[in-house]
Write a structure and sequence with these properties.
Length: 322
């Protein structure tokens, strides 16, 4: 058992060569036409659309705004259940913030950009200033102290870590290139409130001219792992997909391990049964061997309990398909 755990930890922490950008990012976030009015209000500019995903990555209880900007005259094209085909020049922006801070105001921490240039995704992180008027390009990452109240009403204090550009590859690596993670067709295929109407988000994106017309009836929706009305195996597999599968997939940095955590994989192909105790150790242990490796400095208590409940429910065989 100890030897197996040691081998697993070493394999998961072997990093491939860093992936460099093929563009130079601008020094300030305001140089990109993503917001209108006061930047601190996070109001999307004309031509920039907000999107949501079904299951979200845990990042120290931070809230997130996701924006998509594509060049005029271009559209996303669905490519099965996975990532759409993005047009050249696409920008995906994700802003991390805490609403309920110690001084009673919102604290915006960082914005991460993915920009598609010459068919290659490039990544950058921007740290917001104390005045919340702009954000500056980072190369070496940063640590930001935060005091906030989480969604359960618990007061927390932590040192939020903004990743370096090279850190982006630990999650966004797909072979020898970077790739978006969250906005797959399945993860985008949720019901949202837009223009006073509850409607499928993919339909809304088509109506806005962001997404090319497509038949979405065959696109399965990724479950929301926070939905307690769903079965535990379904919720846990959705959680592992968004929080772990970016590494634990064939083209990820943990692709050489015996565990693959994509939601659509049949259970018997995941390696969960063999690695279930190691998974709990990785989620529970902070420091070098913590899983996920990047983006968390504290344990996701609810996520850990969900996965623990799932792991403990597994018998000698798992037959539910999830």
């Amino acid at each position: 058992m100890i030897a197996a755990l040691a081998s697993y930890l070493i394999a998961c922490n072997n990093s491939s060569q860093a992936i460099s950008n093929n563009i130079s990012f601008k020094n300030t976030l305001s140089a990109y036409p993503l917001f209108e009015g006061k930047m601190r209000d996070l109001l999307p500019a004309t031509g920039v659309v907000t999107f949501h995903i079904a299951s979200t990555l845990f990042t120290d209880y931070a809230e997130k705004q996701r924006l998509l900007k594509i060049p005029a005259g271009s559209k996303l094209v669905l490519n099965g259940n996975g990532l759409p085909i993005f047009p050249e020049g696409t920008i995906i922006a994700k802003t991390f913030y805490y609403s309920s801070t110690a001084n009673g105001s919102r604290q915006i921490i960082e914005t991460r950009l993915l920009l598609l240039k010459d068919k290659k995704w490039n990544a950058a992180t921007y740290r917001w200033n104390d005045a919340q008027t702009d954000a500056t390009l980072l190369k070496d990452g940063a640590t930001v102290p935060v005091m906030f109240t989480d969604h359960t009403g618990k007061k927390r204090q932590l040192h939020y870590k903004i990743p370096t550009q090279q850190d982006c590859g630990s999650c966004h690596r797909s072979g020898d290139a970077l790739s978006p993670i969250g906005p797959t067709a399945s993860n985008l295929h949720i019901i949202v409130d837009r223009d006073g109407i509850r409607q499928p988000q993919l339909n809304y994106l088509m109506h806005k001219g962001i997404l090319a017309q497509a038949n979405i009836t065959s696109i399965p929706s990724m479950p929301d792992y926070n939905d307690a009305s769903l079965a535990v195996p379904v919720r846990a597999r959705a959680y592992l997909d968004i929080n772990c599968a970016h590494c634990h997939q064939s083209a990820g940095i943990a692709g050489n391990t015996s565990i693959q955590l994509g939601y659509s994989l049949p259970f018997e192909e995941t390696g969960i049964q063999f690695n279930k105790q190691n998974m709990l150790v990785r989620m529970h242990t902070l420091g070098e061997y913590h899983m996920p490796k990047t983006g968390t400095t504290i344990v996701d208590e609810e996520g850990l309990q969900l996965v623990k409940k799932y792991i403990y429910s597994l018998g000698a065989q798992e037959t539910s398909g999830k």
